[in-house]
Amino acid sequence: MSNTTFGHDDDALFIEEDVPDPALTHLAQRVWKIAIVDDDEDVHRATEFALLDVKILNRKLEFIHTYSKAETRERFAHESDIAVVLLDVVMETEQAGLELVSFIRDELAWRDTRIILRTGQPGYAPEEDAIRDYDINDYKTKNELTRKKLLTALTAAIRSYDQIRTIDASRRGLHQIIVSSASFSVEDGIHGFAAGVITQIAALCGVPPEGLLCAQGDYPDQTGHTTRFSVIASAGQYSKLMNCPIDDIEIVEIRDSLKHALTHRVSLFTQKNMTLYFAGQGNRPVAAYIDLPYALNEIDQQLLEVFCSNLGVCLDNLGLVTQLKSHAYRDQLLMLPNRLKFIEQIDDVLQKQLIQKMLVLIDIDDFAEINDVLGHHYGDLMLRAVASRLQENLGADIFLARISGDVFGLLGDQDALQPDKLQALFSTMFLIEDTAHSVSMSMGIVALDGYGNTGADALKDASIALKRTKGHQRGSHTIFTREMGIEIRERARLMQHLHKAFDADRLFLAYQPQVDLNSRRLIGFEALLRWRTDEGLMIPPNDFIPLAEHSGLIISLGAWVLRTACHTMVLLQEAGLAPDRMGVNVSVIQFRQPDFIHIVESALRDTGLQPQFLELEITESVTMAGAEMFEESLIKFKQMGIQIAIDDFGTGFSSLSYLDKLPVDRLKIDRAFVNQIDTPDGPRIAELITQLGKKLGLQLIAEGIETEHHWQVLREMGCHEGQGFLIARPMIEADLIGWIQSWNSNSASDFSI
Hints:
Helix content is 44%, strand content 20%. The chain contains 25 helices and 27 strands. α10 packs across α11. It is elongated. It starts with 30 loop residues before the first strand and ends in an 8-residue tail after the last helix.
């Protein structure tokens, strides 16, 4: 290769003729990396001598020297941010330079770096072919590359490189803003947010996360001013300032910059640092102070302003999330942990396998009535009074939460939560609005030692124990047992199967005859609901009817029973074998439905049954469910012509004076009193009910007649009608006609059980 010399007429041409960019006047400490790739040592020396002390765009040049394709590949693999490569074509091979172009563009993926191809032998790489076939930016022969032309070509290449990098940085910066801002939506709390700010600003500016800190103002005072600021995240040399009030920061520049940004709500940019303000709508301003190794240009500043604006919105959202989290885990009336937080706390105890821990649920007895009579304001005051007494007496070692309306949860050591100690806390009256009020409470308790389920399960088990207390002995406590859990879960399983059975037509009606005890004439049927499982097992009504009532299934189930029984009665009428009435049991849940009368009317209308052939059997509990509502409904039913019977009479506590006013047709003597006929005490209760019915002018019908002795005793005491196994067991619809014909054809004197 021939040596290349630069013309002496260019000696005075330096880059000073280039007009500096005002926005970059503070970037003197940064350099442009220029790679000289040539196998001729003289070319290296001449090029560097020609560019000695030259500045382009206010930056000095830093030279990287390599002398072969192999050396260049090795050196470039560990380099970055090379602005321009002055590349010789022919080195150890005729195509070495062109092969390096492919290496730079394809393997290193340096798209921004400018490549100026220099050659002393143009024949090996003609200009048109090289520019067409290879990704180079300029082509110069070494003979024409004078000092002036070298500076011109290099300046143009660096300007192009800088513009491409600026545009790319803007694109990447905007992308970083979107990604960075979005990442803060999942930060947990303001401290996590602040730590994230430090990390993201460092990445955005291309500086290490050193010498960074983030500060936040306290909530404003009554005048709306924030007077105290504190450091909430720090890194690098400022890491010791965490939680430090800004006024206590000894470095004046940092202290003043942060206070200025936080009070005036603006960002500040200087040659050596910047203070960014995050412009949210909240009342607690946030700012970050950042040390810079170099000043930022205008584009970087604009990107950071957009970043800060986005983070201001994120900060507002963080405040909302924090508030929502507070609502999610804290009861807003009493400011106590709520049910969700209580479950978390139980889970923590179970996971750590802490010993001698106990869970207690406390329910205020008759709280609903207190609310109804004295008002919700008074009820809220009572809840606050109860919570305060529990907090004051149990202390911080007991975790207290409000689980639901008037139910409190306690979690802690067994010794502190003994039932007698807790009951003693309620022995003293509560003073509410200058009025002394005694409070009774019921408890459900779960011992957590060895408990193998989750916190949610423990709370459910405590609720089961609490319900047991409320149902059996209010004002006391129940400790949950494994048997209790098995029972309630079996009920839940049975309820699930009951729903499926209804949908799969596994429920059916059986009809038990009712006869006149004197004439033995068939006078009616009682429709009885039955459940046969897929395995053929019969589930007793006493097991599944309460479940149907508890779950609300009784509404749709009862409507189906009513319609089916009416339809069966119509079929018997069409066959000329129908008795006087069809009895259908109605629960208190059905009676409480506002449209129950319409349900009965629809069943009669759709089946074509006349009202006088339907009898509704109700229990004493229905009569006590709501006097006015119940009486109005009965009157409407009687006006329609429907008959009314009170089922299982004598087992409840109905008011006799109220019973005298009801439009009832008959009383049904419960089978328990019929069975007493065979005891030494005899039929005393059955006689009393019979005499009462006669006094009230009501018909009497006895259930559970299983022997001829029952029949005779009941008939002699004046009971009019009866049903039971002596007469017939309940039968399906298909067997009714055959049984009626057989009963009517016989003398009815030969009974078989």
